[in-house]
Amino acid sequence: MFESVSACIRCNKEDVAKVVLMPGDPLRAKFIAEHYLEDPILFNDVRNMLGYTGTYKGRRVSVMGSGMGIPSMCLYAHELYTQVGVDAIIRVGTTGGLQDDLHAGDIVIAQSAATNSSIASLYDSPVKLAPTASWDMLRDAVRSCEALGYGYQVGQVVSSDVFYNPREDAPQRYRDLGLLCVEMETAGLYIEAQASHKKAISILSVSDTFFTGESLSADERERSFTNMMEVSLETALPYA
Ligand SMILES: O=P(O)(O)O[C@H]1O[C@H](CO)[C@@H](O)[C@H]1O
Ligand SMILES: O=c1cc[nH]c(=O)[nH]1
Predict the structure, then answer these.
(1) Is Transport found in the keyword set (predicted)?
(2) Which residue out of 45, 87, 161, 208 is catalytically annotated?
(3) 108 lines ligand 1 (CB under 6 A)
(4) Which of 102, 109, 103, 95 is nearest to 221 (CA)?
(5) Considering Cα of 61, then 202, then 112, then 109, what sign does the dihedral take?
(6) Structure pTM?
(7) How many C-alpha atoms does 175 have within 13 Å on its Cβ side?
(8) C-alpha distance across the termini of the chain, in Å
(9) Is the dihedral of CA 173, 177, 180, 186 positive or negative?
(10) What is the DSSP string of 207-237?
(11) Which residue CA neighbors atom 4 of ligand 2 most closely?
């Protein structure tokens, strides 16, 4: 029998690890659990936002979908941090590349996230918060890429509230500002981590590029981001 600890996650708290990998797609969570975790158990299936816990290199690690967009990410991250007792979340996401030296399949570690969302304005603060990665997790993500021999870039990404932006010049403006890539959740995750005094890092894989026209299929998006998954699992170990 599940103890329902929060509004949208039905689980026993002790079934969730202290560190959670969060892809947007719950089927990517299932893929990670089935391919990388030993003895995975399903701890959440409310709304099919699948969450699993197993062991990786002998340490307990969980993986759960976040859904798409800042509202969905914020809801689940908030419940995991404040009601389930999770200490650290690693977003395992896809992103659209803006710069010419980013190619499909490349890894981006998000140091910070510019956003068109109002999330940072909702906190009672005399300043607008700057969504920023946890330094130790950023360092550990870099170390994991280097240990595995995978190339990576570290920098500022864009977390957009919309996938289809009515401002057609938006990607060009982002590119001119040196922003690396566009996705839809990192700023929300970083603000939730800051507000909860917890840790977060966003590790992204480029699924397509805005200016050079590279693109991966939906099936490849679901299954072929194994470099990013391996980096994320290695990054999780110190927090497990
Ligand atoms: O692959 P995920 O983690 O879902 O991330 C990206 O993909 C979705 C859009 O296709 C958005 O959620 C965006 O942030
Ligand atoms: O272009 C893209 C690719 C992935 N995710 C996004 O939000 N945008």
Answers:
(1) no
(2) 208
(3) no
(4) 95
(5) positive
(6) 0.96
(7) 16
(8) 25
(9) negative
(10) EEETTT--B--HHHHHH--HHHHHHHHHHHG
(11) 95
Q: Is 2 in the pocket of ligand 1 (CB under 6 A)?
A: no
* Residue 208 annotated to the active site: yes
Tens digit of pLDDT at every position of the chain (240 positions) = 556 678 899 999 999 999 999 999 999 999 999 999 999 999 999 999 999 999 999 999 999 999 999 999 999 999 999 999 999 999 999 999 999 999 998 999 999 999 999 998 898 889 999 999 999 999 999 999 999 999 999 999 999 999 999 999 999 999 999 999 999 999 999 999 999 999 999 999 999 999 999 998 877 766 658 999 999 999 999 999
| Pairwise CA distance, residues 11 & 159, whole Å | 29
**So where are the chain's domains?**
13-239
Interhelix angle for 226-236 vs 26-36, to 10°?
70
Fold (CATH) for 13-239 = Rossmann fold (3.40.50)
Residues forming beta bridges with residue 38, ordered by sequence position: 55
Looking at the CA of 69, name the nearest ligand.
1
Q: In which region does residue 213 sit, left (phi positive, over 0), alpha (psi from -120 to 50) or beta (all else)? A: left
φ, ψ for residue 109 (rounded to 5)? Answer: -105, 120
Atom of ligand 2 nearest to the CA of 95: 4
The structure tokens listed for 153 are 């870039």
User: From its phi and psi, is residue 86 left (phi > 0), alpha (psi between -120 and 50) or beta?
Assistant: beta
How far does residue 126's CA lie from ligand 1's centre (Å)? Answer: 31
Q: Determine contact, residues 91/22, Cβ cutoff 8 Å.
A: yes
Half-sphere exposure of 180 (CA within 13 A, CB side): 24
Of 203, 96, 100, 190, give the one whose Cα is nearest residue 155. Answer: 203
